[in-house]
Amino acid sequence: MHILWNQIDRPAWDKAHTEAGGALQQDWAYGFSLTVPGVTCHRAEVILDGETVALAQFICRRYGFVLSVALCTRGPLWLKPLAADVRARIYQHIKRSLPLARPRLALFSPEITDPTDASVARLIRVMTGYSTLMIDLTRSGEQLRAELDARWRNRLGAAEKSGLTIVNDEVAPEYVKWLLAAEQAQRAEKSFHGLPVAFVERYIQAGTPTKQTALILHAEHQGKRIAAMLFLLHGRVATYHIGWADQTGRETNAHKLIVWRAFEILRTRGITTLDMGGVNTHDLPGISRFKLGMGGTVVTFAGMFV
Asked: Which pLDDT belongs to residue 300?
């Protein structure tokens, strides 16, 4: 077994990531978009018996000129079925070969749900995992609608009859700038944080002629924009990233209609899974209820390991 660092090219990474249905955080464009002064991205290719069996993307920072910290979120990306003891060895090889100055710390938040999984037996769990909602878009529209919570489905029906118009912005620059400005104002008003809004612009710009990177939909009522949502696309998976609504948008359940139209559009683009992002009923009860009403499957990951 050996690890190649920063040698794989983007087309090869994108192909493997798409075939494996990888998470946003393991997408090449994600690492590119977070690389700014003080933040680096390192990509590992794991070779076993002459074959690439795993990829792992790390976002890295140096703290106080003392400690290098590398975070692999929702990775490694396993490309082949591997026994737990082999995966455990891969974690150790990656940690030992990480191209960062010492002292350094390698953190993994793998896509496993059991914290006692044998693959992480040699690692130490330092944080519990978060939960997310996954929607299977390979099902028919009738199946998706039937799985909606009854109240959610009724409010969707009301939104469909309310005269709202849903517009596909096709990530036009003016709409991107408008939505990001609205998101900045929303964060300031509600005192919450997330990835820098500049990340979205860089992520969209990281698209290629054969790789779409985002979908923006907004709702209009009587000619006025009242709600919008942004989804980031990575391979056959989409991840919900930003949502905004004014008072009219909330009163008309515009986000429910936007999500429903997003289901349809994403399916036509070959997206098979929609990751609606974190579910936290304690700290974010409103948005969590909104997500849980969509049906789907709640996945709780095992946590962060070092």
From this structure: 97
Q: How many domains, the chain?
A: 2
Q: Tokens at residue 98, please?
A: 């990480």
pLDDT in tens, 233-242: 999 999 999 9
* 99-130 confidence digits (pLDDT tens): 999 999 999 999 999 999 999 999 999 999 99
Say if residue 194 is in the same domain as residue 111: no
| 243, two tokens | 């949502």
Percent of the chain's residues with pLDDT above 90: 88
Angle at 159 between CA 153 and CA 161, to 5 degrees: 110
List residues bridging with 135 in a β-sheet: 274
Q: What is the DSSP string of 33-92?
A: HH--TTEEEEEEEEEETTEEEEEEEEEEEEETTTEEEEEEET--EE-S---HHHHHHHHH
Task: Measure the CA–CA gap between 234 and 74, rounded to whole angstroms.
Answer: 14
Residue 253 shares a structural domain with residue 229: yes
Read off the pLDDT of residues 36-90 as tens digits, 9 standing for 90 and up. Answer: 999 999 999 999 999 999 999 999 999 988 899 999 999 999 999 999 999 999 9
CATH number of the domain at 100, please: 3.40.630.30
| In a shared domain, residues 119 and 193 | no
Query: Which helix H or strand E contains 215, and what residues bound it?
Result: strand 214-221
- The first and second tokens of residue 217, run together, are 């939909």
Q: Residue 286 falls within a domain, yes or no?
A: yes
Give the whole-angstrom CA distance, residue 148 versus residue 282: 22
**Domain match, 160 and 106 both:** no
Residues 103 and 185 in one domain: no
Same domain, 268 and 159: yes
SS3 state of residue 181? helix
